[in-house]
Amino acid sequence: MGIGYGASDEQLEKQIGCVKYTLFCFNIVAWMIATALFALTVWLRAEPGFNDWLRILEAQSFYIGVYVLIGVSIIMMAVSFLGCLSALMENTLALFVFIGTQLFGFVALVAGSAVTMQYSTINSSLQPLLNVSLRRFVSTSEYTYSNYVLTMIQENIGCCGATGPWDYLDLHQPLPSSCRDTVSGNAFFNGCVDELTWFFEGKTGWIVALAMTLAMLNVICGTMSFVLVQAVKKEEEQASNYRR
């Protein structure tokens, strides 16, 4: 029996070591992804031209999800170190705390991604905001500031009006030169609401992808931590029985 017990104990020790170091590696990867997520979200928030466009269009609600992801990415960077330490120390209390942070991180990352997509995709809450602002600029396009804003957006994005050239035609206004392709001279068919939304969607695509990847890693790390806790408890029970 002594030989059998020793073999079982050795096998359990190997399993704990395997789970422990795999969890350590996953935490390093999670830290890298959290750092990349933090860098991208801060860059998006701080980008001067992009920020100016959202301010002019009164669509700064776009940043709600970005703020959530910035905060969560900072927490996840710190939590990754907790995961590494708790795994290496095989401390069950620290591992349970880590499991709780992984659950929180998963929920927060999914919520942040959902809010970000809610303000950056087609048929999202962003489009009505853009529509109101752009229609206001079109209806007052005779004023210098409105004309400047429309020219800047239409030339850079390649669009016309809020929903298309008919926004100008319905108001009996001539199509501005910024509404036409410089090569063909034809009017841009798509309105700026859709074009801007596609532009914003491209900006947030990588951010949401990173956030969801990190959320998936949270599930994996949380599950592995729970397995490690059970293995450590079993090892402690075996050690206790052996002492008896």
UniProtKB/TrEMBL annotation:
Keywords per UniProt: Disulfide bond, Membrane, Transmembrane, Transmembrane helix
GO cellular component, one term: apicolateral plasma membrane
Membrane topology recorded in Swiss-Prot or TrEMBL: Multi-pass membrane protein
One Pfam entry name: Tetraspanin
UniProt superkingdom: Eukaryota
Signal peptide start and end residues: none
Listed SUPFAM superfamilies: Tetraspanin
Main location: membrane
Repressor is among the record's keywords: no
Disulfide bridge positions per record: C159-C192, C160-C179
TM region positions: 21-44, 64-88, 95-119, 206-229
Membership in a protein family: Belongs to the tetraspanin (TM4SF) family.
Official protein name in the record: Tetraspanin
Gene: Dper\GL14243
